[in-house]
Amino acid sequence: MKKQILIVYAKSTDEIFNRQSALGSYIHCLAGILVKNGYGVRINEIEFDSIPEQETRSVVASGQSSFKKFLPAFIKEYWRDKRMYSWLGSLYTNIDNGKPFDKIVEFYTYGSDIGYKLSKKYKKPLLLVYDNPVLEEHAFFHTGQLFFKKKAAELEQYSLLQSQAIVVYSEAVKNFLTKKFNRPLPCFIHQNVDYTRFEYVENKTIDDGVINIGFIGSFLKWHRVDLLLKAFTTLKNEGHNVKLFLLGNGMDYENIKQQAKNNKYASAIEMPGFMDGQQLLNYKIKLHIGVMPGSNWYGAPNKIFEYGAAKMAVVAPDTPTIKSLFNHNEELLLFKQDDENDLIAKLRLFINDIELLKKYAETLQIKIKNKYSENITFGFYHQLLE
Description:
Blueprint: E1 4-9, H1 22-36, E2 40-43, E3 46-47, H2 66-69, H3 73-95, E4 103-107, H4 114-122, E5 126-129, H5 134-141, H6 149-162, E6 165-168, H7 171-181, E7 187-189, E8 211-218, H8 225-237, E9 242-249, H9 253-262, E10 269-273, H10 277-286, E11 289-291, H11 302-309, E12 313-317, H12 320-325, E13 333-335, H13 340-352, H14 354-371, H15 374-385
Parallel strand pairs: 1-2, 1-4, 4-5, 5-6, 6-7, 8-9, 8-11, 9-10, 11-12, 12-13
Antiparallel strand pairs: 2-3
């Protein structure tokens, strides 16, 4: 009889259906890999076999009433977390529905103790996927007083210490957890790569000598798309024959779009919004350089995998996670985080040396092909789940 895996994601299950949710899309991808290889999978309260294909949906921030706009930030934070914990209680009830499972895989999110409670109640092993320091990230997005910070810290500790295995992106995150709890935890390093976003492009041309520079992803503050826009402007001022493609959406999208519109080289900038499928592939075929203009210390560089598969030469910041996964001056070029001049210098190297650009693109693609695949991901999780 096939093993039944319960995947817990303590946010809206709807995110699993949405291609614009990076983590939701990865969970959907992983569930599909497990099912394809003989596991039974349930995500929260829904059997994977009944989960529909993913759709491209707009991510719209919920509005607030005129009355709430005038409330102090600390009151809004208090009620936001109160509602969250109430909702988590309801989600736990829906998940704990009597259907049997053998193991739990929880993609850990702020405030959750769902995997922990289910593991304790049914004496089933818990595997935790810990893709960011959740308290620190929550504080970044919610600048008001965090009334439930102590509670969230306790629930995170319970979950981590209950886990039979913890999947992290890099040595940097593993070391963070070791230092935080003053003990080694059962951490295993693996990249949460969504293979449904891989398109292997073999042949690239440079038409009319134009080098196409691209960013694909979420327009978050820490992704520093603004820095890439500034670097592009400098390169154009220097006379380089380049175009810029900014694909995606997110909280900083409208701000960047306005900056691009006001840029004196606006005609050489394209911002088509979120792209997927054949539309996205059409852009990947055009792009010669893929840029990660910013990240945080723990950020998973999923776009580098996607760029590499599509045979782009890559420029990325020298964060601990990226440095631990890719070799500078061999597979990509790293620039000093937040250093505009260094970003420009690294872009110049590729623009001025097309053979170097092609060499790095080829080397990175070979690494992606050899080291990251559905079979490797299945083998990793199969070993932890058996």
